[in-house]
Design brief:
Number of strands: 5
Structural class: alpha+beta
Largest sheet: 5 strands, mixed
Number of domains: 1
Radius of gyration: 16 Å
CATH architecture: Roll
Number of helices: 3
CATH topology: Ubiquitin-like (UB roll)
CATH class: Alpha Beta
Strand content: 25-35%
CATH superfamily: Beta-grasp domain
Order of helices and strands: EEHHEEEH
Length: 98
């Protein structure tokens, strides 16, 4: 890699809409970019204006919830999570009762 290429990182931004459709965008960002920068670069909020990123829709990196100010590293996956609409424990108990 040359010096110019080392100043950039590529990250994937993912959003899974109900029920199973997953949208993915690969964005190239300068080193030091944050989760918020990746979301802006992906254009996800323009495509899905109903998203409340950082509010009802939490974000994470590789399965772990993080704040929007989290710096990114190479080859990470920024994920936008749908809000939980049911208590997972209650759903599990209901399934076990069947």
């Amino acid at each position: 890699m040359n010096e110019k290429e080392e100043r950039w990182i590529e990250v994937t931004v993912c959003y899974a809409r109900a029920p199973h459709q997953v949208d993915r965008w690969v964005v190239r960002l300068p080193i030091g970019a944050t989760v918020a920068d990746a979301l802006v670069a992906s254009g996800v909020q323009e495509r899905f204006p109903e998203l409340d990123v950082g509010g009802r829709n939490q974000v994470g990196i590789n399965g772990r919830v993080v704040p929007l100010s989290t710096p990114l590293t190479k080859e990470v996956r920024v994920e936008i999570y749908r809000p939980i609409v049911a208590d997972p424990r209650r759903v599990c108990r209901r399934k076990a009762a069947l």
